[in-house]
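Let's do one together. I've listed all components of the complex below, 316 residues spread over four lines.
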Amino acid sequence: MSQVATNFNHRTIEYEQLLSNFKELLKKNSLKFTIQREVILETLYNSNEHLTPESLHTLIKNKFPDLKTGIATIYRTLSLLENSDMVTFLSFGASGKKYELGAKKHHDHIICTACGNITEFVDEQIEKRQHAIANELGFKMSNHSMQIYGICKQCQTK
Amino acid sequence: MSQVATNFNHRTIEYEQLLSNFKELLKKNSLKFTIQREVILETLYNSNEHLTPESLHTLIKNKFPDLKTGIATIYRTLSLLENSDMVTFLSFGASGKKYELGAKKHHDHIICTACGNITEFVDEQIEKRQHAIANELGFKMSNHSMQIYGICKQCQTK
DNA sequence: GTCGCTGCAAAGTCTTTGCAGAGAG
DNA sequence: CTCTCTGCAAAGACTTTGCAGCGAC
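Okay, and this is what the predicted structure of the assembly comes out as:
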């Protein structure tokens, strides 16, 4: 186990669970558990934001300057996580892909077009209708997402 | 007026309306109405698909081989249309941006992850809830979008 | 005639890939 | 010890920009 890990400050039962899922996934595919992969997962977990590959990279470089993590590794790990459904990417607006941990409960997003902030929400009625619609159209639904765009309270008062 | 235009086969009142909005928009900004811009608008209008810049370019090259429309012009025109809200882009899945005319009535999308096809739909209940949610969260809603991902009927039987 | 537009090619971004050495199992 | 990972740099894919000649008005 890595030295680095002992520096993390937001370790929780939830995170331990996530980490062990990840390790299991790796083992099942004869992949290796490396410091880089751990740091990426942990950073995604500890961030409240939705991260781009670039911002993830910067965060990691700042927190672990000695690790010299390459951007290519970030991309490789994100797509590994994405293919294993541990992470979901959002591609709202202009600014490229943003990633979030998919382990979290399903939710939708409401995005402020002024400040770029993203708030999460869930609405049961909408969830139900989405299933109904997929059925009506003969689709076998695997996933869904919804975004509302607007101006948030704070930006309205500015 | 261009020679080219007389070749189009799906001219409708709706299209004429769209075209005249476009011309007005151009005039207002002292921009010029060119054959290329006309062809792009018309091709977007006549296509039932959601087009990528690349696929738009190919369509146009095939239909008007003499025009030698450059890909750069496609990009420039799409972003002009986008900034004027005449066109909306969707960025589902992996395959980059797809554009659709925004003049059409609002609708959501259900996407087959096997064949990539996109079907449009509208659901009143969902529309209502979206407005309600934005209100609850103090957002001034400007727009929203929803996607359902799954496997379509045809792909299920394959 | 003026001034914006276009195609082309070059330059930018963002993302992926090849490779040789490092490191997990 | 084996075989996957990693960082680096080079290559790709996609998009934007600079420029000189063309064309709408």
